Automatic annotation (TrEMBL):
<keyword id="KW-0472">Membrane</keyword>
<keyword id="KW-1015">Disulfide bond</keyword>
<dbReference type="InterPro" id="IPR036179">
    <property type="entry name" value="Ig-like_dom_sf"/>
</dbReference>
<keyword id="KW-0325">Glycoprotein</keyword>
<dbReference type="GO" id="GO:0009617">
    <property type="term" value="P:response to bacterium"/>
</dbReference>
<dbReference type="GO" id="GO:0005886">
    <property type="term" value="C:plasma membrane"/>
</dbReference>
<keyword id="KW-1003">Cell membrane</keyword>
<keyword id="KW-0732">Signal</keyword>
<dbReference type="InterPro" id="IPR013783">
    <property type="entry name" value="Ig-like_fold"/>
</dbReference>
<dbReference type="GO" id="GO:0002376">
    <property type="term" value="P:immune system process"/>
</dbReference>
<dbReference type="InterPro" id="IPR052051">
    <property type="entry name" value="TCR_complex_component"/>
</dbReference>
<protein>
    <recommendedName>
        <fullName>Ig-like domain-containing protein</fullName>
    </recommendedName>
</protein>
<keyword id="KW-0391">Immunity</keyword>
Length: 278
């Protein structure tokens, strides 16, 4: 019981407060992340970053009045740190896409206490759009089907991951399909970058299914309009779906498929029309 209480004593508590749960900034802008405490005596302050799916890494720390910036950020003149008795601030100037991550203020006062964290979302100047292309050939139930999508827009410097999501009509559940070993080809054009991807459905089922091409980039999950496989007796054909993209924000995204599937239900999504059909 004592061990259990000790564990909870280092958990998130009200005495360390980060006023902003999330902040959205544009590339090149300025952001101030704040952390407050009600403690009377602060021995040390810590700020850490957390890339979704990875462990916490320190950015800066203090021991009384001594400030120590981690080696990774020593040459980052755009990062400043301010501190007084009951408040600290991490200041980013000239925000870039690499800063789209979760930052957490941490206080050490006899024991370790964590604030709730502030999720910093960076808007890229060039939004990413996904268009899924119709499949015109007819197929039979049990045939393999190749699905195509095009991803428009430059990715963040941290790279991007392409996923195919599958939703069955009878369950309404969306989950990752396969092991992501899909064929994607990057095509550079004058104004943007286009990534063309193909996903092979090895064996179409007898029930209706919708497949969504999606990409994780710049701290967001962007989902295509979807391609629906409809089973009609012995035939299987592709339904027409209006071209939409779904833009989703998330607070955590793990690197493996199982964990990725689990967080899909917690995504906050909004529909954005990318192409009007006439």
């Amino acid at each position: 019981m004592e061990t259990l209480m000790s564990f909870f004593s280092v958990s998130m508590i009200p005495s360390v407060l980060q006023p902003n749960v999330s902040i959205t900034a544009s590339v090149g802008g300025l952001v101030i992340l704040e952390c407050h405490t009600t403690a009377d005596l602060v021995v040390a302050w810590f700020w850490l970053k957390q890339i979704p799916g990875q462990k916490l890494n320190p950015i800066v720390s203090t021991y009384y009045q001594e400030i120590k910036l981690q080696e990774e950020f020593l040459n980052e003149s755009r990062i400043q740190f301010k501190v007084d008795d009951k408040k600290s601030a991490l200041i980013f100037t000239k925000i870039n896409s690499r800063d789209a991550r979760d930052h957490c203020g941490v206080l050490l006062y006899e024991k370790l206490y964590f604030g709730g964290g502030t999720y910093l979302a960076v808007n890229d100047a060039k939004p990413v759009k996904i268009i899924q292309h119709p499949v015109l050939d007819s197929h039979h139930v049990g045939d393999s089907v190749n699905l195509h999508c095009s991803i428009f827009g430059a990715s963040c410097s941290g790279g991007q991951s392409v996923y195919w999501l599958r939703r069955e009509s009878h369950s309404g559940i969306i989950y990752t399909d396969g092991d992501r070993k899909d064929q994607c080809e990057t095509i550079s054009v004058t104004v943007s970058t286009v990534q063309s991807c193909v996903h092979k459905v090895p064996k179409s089922l007898a029930s209706d299914e919708t497949y969504f091409c999606s990409v994780v980039t710049c701290g967001k999950l962007i989902v295509g309009n979807g391609t629906k496989l409809i089973a009609d007796g012995k035939a299987c054909f592709i339904a027409h779906i209006p071209i939409y993209s779904w833009f989703c924000s998330f607070s955590s995204l793990m690197s493996n498929n199982d964990s990725f599937s689990e967080v899909l239900g917690d995504l906050l999504c909004s529909r954005h029309e990318t192409l009007t059909q006439t």
